[in-house]
Write a structure and sequence with these properties.
The chain is an alpha/beta fold. It is built from 5 helices and 5 strands; from the N terminus they run αβββααβαβα. Strands 1-2-3-4-5 form a 5-stranded mixed sheet, with helices on both faces. A hairpin with a 7-residue loop joins strand 1 and strand 2.
Length: 137
Amino acid sequence: MGTLVEDIVAPNIEGLALNYFGCKTISTFAPRIKKNNRKDNSRLQEFDCIVICDNFIIVNNTKSTPTVEDINKFIELLKEIFDFFPEAEGKKVIPIFASLYIPKEIVTYLTRKKIYALAMGNDTMDLLNGEELIDLK
């Protein structure tokens, strides 16, 4: 289930970089990338999605069932982000935590921790045959 959710989220991260955060040029778009820590080459970390733009790096963590523990682990990983992506050093870090559904209390926690919450919204799906089947008049 985890990789399915990641596959749904990843293209949206690229779109957010361009349309929401104003990225002009994406130098790196990397879903499910594995990187070694430059300070400790034996530490290999998988990142759900990374986008590096002109002046920022988006770090995405996606979970099918989000928990506070998952968020806390993400926060710890963010402290070391430039050890994994030295090419982004000096850029602003934009953390995005994603799931198909994020409960309100988790959104509140993410907001307090200054992490964006990304989940399915009202306009993500559309009825393809609605006019043929539903008479709204």
